[in-house]
Amino acid sequence: DITRFDLVKTVNHSIDLVSRMLEKKNIQLEVSFFAEEIIVNLDESKMDQILNNILYNAIKFTNPNGKIKINTNIYKEKEVLHITIEDNGIGMPNSIRENIFSKTITHHREGTRGEEGTGLGLSITKNLMTSLDGKIEIESEENRGTIVHLYFYKY
């Protein structure tokens, strides 16, 4: 359901949900909002799921004492809300990155501390993004980290 909500509060809620995981791995989180309040019209429940999936993966694949950055921007000329979640974790080899959004080819990888997963998180996230008329792109380099770009065109 499309509702009007403050993206800052939603992002902070997602951070609260993973704060224990961040502490356990001593991961530093840096968050940058372009405004104190960012009012959007989207499905907040789907936004929660998207942020939680991406944050969980960032933590899962970031080594202890690593760093994660969340950044938000609105490009008014293009009418795009852009959120990036960047980590300095283990990154992805090309063999995984090529099919990362596939529902049929799953990539089950343990995290840096043996964290489990189904390998379906990014496929689900892509479907959620599509349902919000959004787009997800991933840049990743093995042993260097990953940047997830979330683009929302109708916000």
What can be said about this structure in brief?
The protein is 32% helix and 31% strand.
Pick out its properties.
155 residues; alpha+beta; single chain; 31% strand
Number of helices: 4
- Please give the largest β-sheet: 5 strands, mixed
Question: How much helix, percentage-wise, in residues?
Answer: 25-40%
What Rg, in angstroms, do the CA atoms define?
15 Å
Query: Could you give the count of β-strands?
Result: 7
Q: What low-confidence regions span 5 or more consecutive residues with pLDDT below 50?
A: none
Question: How much of the polypeptide forms β-strand, as a percent range?
Answer: 25-35%
Which strand order does the major sheet show? 2-4-5-7-6
Q: Output the structural class.
A: alpha+beta
Q: What's the pLDDT, averaged over the residues? A: 91
What features would you describe in this structure?
- This protein is an alpha+beta fold.
- Helices cover 32% and strands 31% of the residues.
- It is built from four helices and seven strands.
- The strands form two sheets. Strands 2-4-5-7-6 form a five-stranded mixed sheet, covered by helices on one side. A two-stranded antiparallel ribbon has the order 1-3.
- Helix 1 runs parallel beside helix 2 and helix 2 packs antiparallel against helix 4 (121-131).
- The longest helix is centred in the N-terminal third of the chain and has 18 residues, at 7-24.
- The chain is globular, with a radius of gyration of 15 Å.
- The mean pLDDT is 91.
